[in-house]
Structure formats: structure tokens, C-alpha cells
Specification:
about 300 residues, alpha+beta, nine-stranded antiparallel β-sheet, DNA-binding, transcription
DNA sequence: CGTGTTTGACCAGCGC
DNA sequence: GCGCTGGTCAAACACG
């Protein structure tokens, strides 16, 4: 991990003077995890450097209140620039706050005194919405819309309050797949893209024209790692997470970016925490310790 | 022609 | 009630 990345990480973690990151209390729905925030994706992939081997994290990780920060360097796949360091992914409290703000605000005034049918519809709508799993993560990237293997159709763009950068709205183009994602650039760090996924893919990652799985991490070195996941089924990432609900407080969907993030994360040290019953061969590929994300 | 983007309009929720 | 904001729609447009 370069110093840059570490700086970036700490920036995300400890900027408690930011208005959007100080209100976890208002985001009870947020579930933050901290498997191992001290590793960059590079380290995860290639093993730690000697320096980092000696590195001891300060006493700042407590229970589940700190955000997961996993830095992932994007390969040269998709639209991601070819420079190895041009794109890094992390998840953070800031992203959680950014992505979750809406959740915390909406539904507060649900006690409508309107007619029962309207109220019922509202409740139903709310329940439906809350059923949609969400999580957000941050990607250090020069491009806004990172290739992640799925096909997305942009259906809207809005100016973001307090930010010079617009927010883009995407929907998965696959029929009957209602997964959406929002992409916006952090106003605090313009080099950072905040991506929020909502919903669950119910289909395979579509192959691109060359019959390969596209993706922001789709460089050749990554593809072999993708294979087992492809073989795993249409909802592989979902299945993956579904196997670790006790770890992630979640029982269903996951973004494909997370999918890649997790897929590409190579174990270099396995902790001896209990594994899910069906962790199976995934344990060879997925180091549950070094990946992370949060739901919003 | 199929697919995806752009962009202004519209709607609903929320705070004041 | 009103204004602000976020999210979505859909027509027009661009592109391969």
C-alpha cells in the first residue's frame, strides 16, 4: 500500500468533521464492518510488504462501529484507465452516510392520516423499498461509471446538493432485474467515486462481445479468479454473502463490484474465525477478513 | 435499427 | 401550504 492509499484510507475513516459522516446514529440501518482495514487490495493480492507486516493498527477499531475500508486497485478492464493505480475502491463511513442519507430521511413521516388504502400503499411501498438491500463503496477512479460486468442503462442525472458533481442513476438492463445503482463523485475528494447499489441481480454476469466477463477488474490476471464464481451460479455473489449472514448481517444480494472486490481479494493470511458452514472452496478464494462493505 | 445517453419535466417526501 | 430535494420518466438524440 502506498502512502497515498493509506492517507486516503485514513481520510475516509477519520474525517469526523464532515457533516455527512458524523451521524451514524441517524443511520441505524447501516451495518458497518471492519474485517481488516489495514490492508490494501494490493497487499491482499500480493501479500503484505515487510513494513506492513510489522504494522500494528492503532486502537481505533472497536466493535462494528468502524467502517470497513478495503482498497482495491482496479485493473485495466473496462473503462478503467490502464494505469494500475488509477482506480482504487474502498468503502467508508462517508460513503455510507452519503448513500444512506436518504434512507434516514425517508419514512419518518409514515403515520399518514390519509385514507387507509393510501396508507396501505405507502406502507407497502416503504416495505418494498426497505427490502432492497443496499450498500455503497468508494472507488478512487478517474471514470465515473466503472465497468463491473453488468450492463447498465442510465436513466437520470441530478445535481447533488453541496456538490459540484452530478449524481447519475443507472438500472440494470437485464429484463426483470431491478438492480439500480447511483454513481456520484465525492465533493470532498473529486478523485473518489461513490457507488451505491440497490437490489439484487437475478441473472448471470453478461458476457461481452468477446464472450468474456467484462468488469472493472477484468484484466487477465484477474480472470482466472472470476471463473469459480461464474461457475457458481447466477447469483454467485449473493450466494457468497448469503453464506455469511452472521458476518455481514445480510442474507441476499451484493453488488457485482463487491463481487469483484471480494473475488479478487487474495488471502495472504487466514484468520481462524469460524467460517460459515458452506464456506467450502470459497475459502480458497475469498478471504473474508480482507473484504468489506456496508449496507445502506 | 437496437442500444444507450442526455435532459427537462414530473412526482413524492420532507422540513419549515 | 410552500419550497426544496431526490428519484424517475420519457422524448429526443447519438452512436455503432
Amino acid at each position: 500500500m502506498s502512502e497515498d492509499y493509506r492517507e486516503f484510507y485514513y481520510h475516509q475513516l477519520f474525517h469526523d468533521d464532515q457533516p455527512r459522516s458524523d451521524d451514524l446514529s441517524v443511520h441505524p440501518h447501516l451495518q458497518l464492518f471492519d474485517p481488516n482495514p489495514y490492508l490494501s487490495f494490493t497487499e491482499i493480492l500480493h501479500g503484505p510488504t515487510t513494513d506492513h507486516d510489522k504494522y500494528s493498527p492503532p486502537e481505533i477499531v472497536k466493535e462494528e462501529e468502524n467502517p470497513v475500508v478495503v482498497v482495491v486497485e482496479a485493473g485495466e478492464g473496462g473503462e478503467t484507465p490502464a494505469t494500475p493505480n488509477s482506480s482504487t475502491t474502498t468503502s467508508s463511513m462517508e460513503a455510507a452516510a452519503a448513500a444512506g442519507e436518504e434512507y434516514s430521511n425517508k419514512g419518518k413521516k409514515e403515520e399518514s392520516q390519509d385514507d387507509p388504502s393510501k396508507k396501505e400503499a405507502k406502507v407497502k411501498k416503504k416495505a418494498e423499498k426497505e427490502k432492497q438491500p443496499r450498500f455503497a463503496f468508494m472507488t478512487k477512479s478517474e471514470v465515473d461509471h466503472l465497468e463491473d460486468g453488468y450492463r447498465w442503462r442510465k436513466y437520470g442525472q441530478k445535481a447533488v446538493k453541496n456538490s459540484p458533481y452530478p449524481r447519475s442513476y443507472y438500472r440494470c438492463t437485464t429484463q426483470k432485474c431491478g438492480v439500480k445503482k447511483r454513481v456520484e463523485r465525492s465533493y470532498e475528494d473529486p478523485s473518489t467515486v461513490i457507488t451505491t447499489y440497490e437490489g439484487q441481480h437475478n441473472h448471470h454476469v453478461p458476457a461481452n462481445h468477446r464472450g468474456q466477463v467484462a468488469g472493472m477488474f477484468g484484466s487477465p490476471m484477474f480472470n482466472p479468479l472470476l471463473m469459480p464464481f461464474e461457475a457458481g451460479g447466477p447469483n454467485f455473489p449473493q450466494q457468497l454473502l448469503a453464506q455469511m449472514p452472521h458476518l455481514y448481517g445480510y442474507d441476499g444480494a451484493v453488488s457485482n463490484n463487491l463481487y469483484h472486490q471480494r473475488t479478487l481479494t487474495q488471502p495472504h493470511h487466514q484468520h481462524s474465525q469460524q467460517l460459515p458452514p458452506d464456506y467450502g472452496l470459497l475459502q480458497d478464494i475469498i478471504p473474508k477478513q480482507e473484504s468489506g462493505f456496508f449496507y445502506v
